[in-house]
Amino acid sequence: MAGPPGRATSSCREAEPSSPPTSTHNPKHPHLDFQMPYLKAYFGNLGVPPENLHLVAAELTRVDVLPQLAGLEDLAAASLTRARATLTELAAA
Asked: Distances from the Cα of 90 to the Cαs of 13, 33, 56, 84, in angstroms?
């Protein structure tokens, strides 16, 4: 779609999700993971050794305020439960 010079335009529109989103750090889909490698590199550049860096993710944390995530509350709760269990294990170590 053409627009005024110097302005980017797009004819893309947001599609309705056909299935629940997958975790961005899912080992089955490592190419979809952008946040974890970025954070590892960021903290590594600050001098944090990899063995001292433990990243814990909770997915779908905005399910209560984003209408397009309606119906995924169970997945959000399960993800938060897993994250809390991981944090408890790390705190005990």
From this structure: 42, 22, 10, 10
Task: Assess contact for 76 and 63: CB atoms under 8 A.
Answer: yes
Predicted TM-score of the model (pTM): 0.61
Q: Are 78 and 69 in contact (CB under 8 A)?
A: no
Tokens matching residue 12: 């893309």
Q: Where are the alpha helices (DSSP H) in 1-93?
A: 35-45, 73-92
Render pLDDT for 46-90 as a digit per residue (tens, 0 to 9). 999 999 999 999 999 999 999 999 999 999 999 999 999 999 999
Sign of the CA dihedral with 63 first, then 67, 72, and 74 last: positive
